[in-house]
Amino acid sequence: MHSFTTDPDPMPMSALAPVRRPRALAARLWTVTGLLGFAALLTMVLTTEGVAEGDRPVLRWLIDHRTGWLSRALEVVSSPAIAVGVPALAFVGALTVGLVRRRWRPLATLAVAFCGGALLSTGLKLVIGRARPSTASMFGTQASGWSFPSGHTLLTSVLLGALVLLAWPHLRTRARRFLACAGAATAAAVMGLSRLYLGDHWLTDVLASYALAAIVLGATAWLTARTTRGEEQS
Cα–Cα distance between 196 and 190 in angstroms, integer? Predict the structure, then answer.
């Protein structure tokens, strides 16, 4: 008598590999795109050509169109309370998850992204040494230090992007993923606008920060990809 079984053959682990390839490909694409964009912007800044030619006209236009309520709102966006408080809350939350649930990927992802962004911002400011707009152009508290890139914009962008990376496996529909990306992009854009509107940075400073954020997030996604399998299957 022959014995039959209805259980399918177990799927080999190698068959799961292609599932992870789109994520790795997307990480590489983000990194390469960011590198190309940053290289182009840096060249324009050093030669004062291309987009850099619009730095002063954009700043003058924003100064001419300042309004009371918008000035106060964007001053709050760029305030130390936001620049320091939001990252602090994110790290406290990630640390809490690590201590309670023994999952350290959130903390590692935030640390890699945020520290990478901070190192790039500090290093490039020292190397490039670009002057900020004049203090007469600044609204509210006057910014100091070098201008290129915008540290506020870069760190806000990498922090929000890292949060999206962490939430991505749990957002099961395209609509939710779109909303998460759109929300993070909008918040990063508002921060960049605040730095321009307040006269603390040039347009190319902010655009370069977005390109650098793409580099950092692509590298972060690649570095932390191996730690996601266990969490996604749990």
Answer: 10
Structural domains in the chain (count): 1
CA 148 to CA 128: how far, in whole Å? 7
In a domain, 231, yes or no: no
CA-CA distance, 205 to 202, in Å (whole number)? Answer: 5
pTM for the full predicted model: 0.85
CATH number, position 65: 1.20.144
144 in helix, strand or coil? coil
Rounded CA gap, 231 and 227, in Å? 8
pLDDT for the residue numbered 22: 58
Environment class of 51 (CB within 10 Å of its CB; exposed 0-12, middle 13-18, buried 19+): middle
Structural domain including 130 reads 24-225
